[in-house]
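COURSE: Structural Biology Practicum
ASSIGNMENT: Worksheet 4, Part C
STUDENT ID: 0417
INSTRUCTIONS: Below are two proteins. For each, the amino acid sequence is given first, followed by its structure token string. Answer the questions at the end about the second protein only.

PROTEIN I
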Amino acid sequence: MVGFANADINKNKEGRFTMLYIKREFRRKGIGKKLTKERLNWLKKMKARSIEAGLYVKNKASISNLKKFGFKPLSIKMIKELK
């Protein structure tokens, strides 16, 4: 196995990309793009009205991948760690 991806859909037909991971040595070979296409096609088949994806701001590769599929930034989640 070189990677995995996951998506789900709720009762309101809101889809969500929950995970995408590719082993480091297999990155930049189009695998993430293929897995994203599969998740997108599955959610379309399930009649999703929208798709949400949460990403880390520093994850430039994932942000770039999703922008190619027409995703646009919507909000920013902020966090403060307490010690």
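PROTEIN II
(use this one for the questions)
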Amino acid sequence: MCRTNYNTSQRKNKHLNYEERLMIERWYNRDKKSKKEIAKLLNRSERTIRREIKRGLVMVKDYEWRDIIEYSADLSQDMYDYNIMAKGPNLKIGNDYRLKEYIEKEIKEKKKSPEAIIAEIEHNNLQFKAKITARTIRNNIALGNVFDITEEDLTYKKKKQSKNPKKRISNKIPPEKSIEFRPEKANNRAEYGHWEGDSVVGKRKGRGPVLLTLTERMTREEIIIKVKSKTKESMIKAFNKLERKYGKRFYTKFKTITFDNGSEFNDYKGLEKSCIRKKIRTRVYYAHPYCSGERGSNENNNRLIRRWIPKGTNISEISDEFIKKIEDWINNYPRAIFGYKSTNMILLNI
């Protein structure tokens, strides 16, 4: 079940985790709880919550296409992961000032790289109190908290590859595939057949099967499909199977689908290409990066799925029968937006 009264014992010097950030997102954006209330629920200091919310604020579009500011758990977690990665291990140099001066001299005067310095220390069996790696030297030079050296003093700087797939992938998506070009009937939910899609993973950075989730915008109808892996090839195969299942009905049932910028969905040509006929089978669009509110219906249904399949669950052990049970449960769930009618009740009148 979804935990609305989350509480934990005070943990000193412990950072917020992803689960706590998701709770902050829900309480701050949807439930409109104050920072003080959120701090009390998480047993954290109010200052911690204020700083966390400030770090994760992002501008999104609401259902009436107005700009609003919301807290994004994913954005904040990405920033946290990046900062941790960039920081690297602490330089355990202690009071070994001789090693510090040696490194600074080798870089400034002899123009050696950190890798060459460490290699020479090991090869010549030079003795220092502390032992460090070339990567640690580079990290601390970048942070500027140990050495009297800047990155400009290095003979060359290693280029760091982007760890943010959203920024890389967005360059592969043509402008006309932006959500801004989606049909107005899809935007205002005036017509059945416009969907939002996403993938739900079991282990945050694990491999293996994932869930493809599709949510119809007008009725909130949910379709959940277990796919082999979080790859574009697996997603295309899942849509091929779905097209064969519905046959001619597929083309009226799935008029458009809006995804995020995940790598598993960036092959829009493969997703649109029919495996039965020559014409395309659907139109694919993409939300703006870090704007999960543009796929709000799908995000809300994903939270319902998490009641049954918590984060960290091994999806390979989840049976198709259980997934179907979750799908039926969501489609029969009474919704306040429909006067507490379920999706299946709404579908009877379409």
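ANSWER KEY EXCERPT:
Q1: The longest strand covers residues 194-200.
Q2: The mean pLDDT is 83.
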